[in-house]
Amino acid sequence: xxxxxxxxxxxxxxxxxxxxxxxxxxxxxxxxxxxxxxxxxxxxxxxxxxxxxxxxxxxxxxxxxxxxxxxxxxxxxxxxxxxxxxxxxxxxxxxxxxxxxxxxxxxxxxxxxxxxxxxxxxxxxxxxxxxxxxxxxxxxxxxxxxxxxxxxxxxxxxxxxxxxxxxxxxxxxxxxxxxxxxxxxxxxxxxxxxxxxxxxxxxxxx
Length: 206
Prior knowledge:
Layout: H1 10-14, H2 17-22, H3 29-38, H4 43-57, H5 62-72, H6 81-91, H7 96-105, H8 129-154, H9 166-197
Helix pairs in contact: 3-9, 4-5, 6-7, 6-9, 8-9
């Protein structure tokens, strides 16, 4: 059994990745990019990443897992899906698949956070149930292709030595973050639409 002895204080919170960048406010993307260019992973970030990786590799009691989550994700921030994905992938260097697994299995997102709905819920009054079923299947395929595209794009990690200078590398890091945010938006749209179709798709015949 993993026994954790974690002391959490305000200094710990301020040493926590994205908390360093957006503590006390909601930062817009352009400012976030600007800060990312000069951000260097701290020893605290590395230690937090190591703790979080235990959640992917070890079985532990829920109370111990909750200690890790509460330690690594400051309660001074209302963590939205976008924030958490950015923190895990850009600050803690998790892959997209590891990120999705953590968000699915653990309570990282703030319960009090109101997620923004991207598009109004359709009523499908003019669409036949079989067509809604086709839409649901197409969305599932699109989700799969998006996941595959993210894997392919991230398959080869470029380093500063692959660029003429550090500034060019930093710009490339910012662009990677920008692309990742677009992937997040597309994925969120697909997930919302998939959720909308659930009540309108005929159940499978047994």
